[in-house]
Amino acid sequence: MQTRVSMQGISKRFDAVHALTGVNLTLYPGEVHTIAGENGSGKSTLLKILAGVLQPDAGAIEIDGKAVEFTDIRMAMNHGVTMVSQELSLVPHLGVAENVFLGHNQTRNTFGIDWKDTEKRSVEILNRLNLHVNPKAEVSSLPQHQQQLVEIARALASETRVLLLDEPTSSLAPAEVEALFNVVRQLRDDGVSIVMISHRMSEMLAISDRFTVLRDSKFIDTSSKDGVDENWLIDRMVLNKPKEATKKIKSGEPQKIVMEVKGLTGFAGDFADISFNIHQGEIVGLAGLAGAGRTELVEAIVGAHARRSGDVYVNTKKIGHNTRSTMNSGIALVPDDRRMKSTIHDMSVRDNLLLAVHGRPAKNRSRKKEEKIVNEWVAKFNIKVKNLDAPISSLSGGNQQKVVIARCLVSKPKVLILDEATRGIDLGAKAEIYEILRNLAREGLAILVVSSEITEIFEISDRVLVMHAGELTADLDRSTIKESDVVSAATGVLV
């Protein structure tokens, strides 16, 4: 069979991080090809290079046997390559039809764009996805899952020969997933090459004709669907390290239950009927793949995300459903997005660390005490800063994160929740944060660590909770599990 796409020896670095190292990928016409791997294995980076979003540091790409170099998305689209990313690229205040045909294939007449025909054609494409909305409606008025379908419709509206789908079902309901898969199968039968990234094992096996597995930025294996099952994928996605399964846990021994979550359920189907507890001096890891509902869950615990039902208890006392009640009860959160949720970038290091203190009444504040607080935490966490009055943006990512963690601890919480606390920071800073957390656990703090990196979960946790598709699928003792157990639970396979 003639090759549609050939990617050979693709490498990409971001500073000192190897995102891809000599990766190969071959696509044929009329196939659905899934790229599988843990978070951080290089899957999305590979698709972004093929889509022209990123340029490789090394390697070669051929389309239909001809060498190409995509310097931008437009060049890739001109060669029939279209990508639907996890991050929506719609224009919120434009209509649905305008977004579907934005920048391409618009019908024109003597007066300019023929909007009547454009809207008619957009409805035809949206109907294929079982999405029935007003083509004139602003995209911003649609719920998230419908915006995802509009994004996919835009890809279908171009003359696509290679369709790249990066987690296309993460915000879709089961009926919407099946409608999308029906369209994918139609496109495959029409000769389109389709590449999909999914963290849902059942979806991978249901839709894919061929599989390629990446691990730690490297190509591991490829196979047709006839040779692939759950065990084949899990065995290649993770590198089990038997010694890690029994390594000594470094935090303190669990004592009394400090926080208990009972039957927590979100409004938008993000998570349902979640129950667990955390003991004093215990570090609990919360694992799961993209779209599992981890961030929504922890934000609901602290009152920053709406919940339909369920309760949270701290030291047996039920707390309210708002952030103020949560803070007063002794729960602190380090959010998943440092830039958007954790720091005020133009504000000084000093003032970022003291944000919680600044919320107190003026009569309870003392400049001398505040200065002592700042100096103590800077020294305790070895925060590398030359000038405390400099903007926090002048610090490295790791030092910024230390400031955020210190700010949470100023209020002396009983429970510390960290969502992707080491995302975007170097290995040295990660190691420092791990040691900080271990010391805090030894001092009796109850800690919940949310992470996409299984190696991080294994490095730091006493116990591991796993989420899949909004459900808690496993509660595992760290001393007796392997990485494959976590991957199985995270992809919907019973452990």
From TrEMBL:
Keywords in alphabetical order: ATP-binding, Cell membrane, Membrane, Nucleotide-binding, Repeat, Translocase, Transport
Subcellular location: Cell membrane
InterPro entries named in the record: AAA+_ATPase, ABC_carbohydrate_import_ATPase, ABC_transporter-like_ATP-bd, ABC_transporter-like_CS, P-loop_NTPase
The ABC transporter domain, residue ranges: 5-241, 249-494
Membrane topology field: Peripheral membrane protein
GO cellular component, as recorded: plasma membrane
Record bears the keyword Cell wall biogenesis/degradation: no
GO molecular function: ATP binding; ATP hydrolysis activity
PANTHER family assigned: CARBOHYDRATE TRANSPORT ATP-BINDING PROTEIN MG119-RELATED (PTHR43790), GALACTOFURANOSE TRANSPORTER ATP-BINDING PROTEIN YTFR (PTHR43790:SF9)
Name of the protein this chain belongs to: Unannotated protein
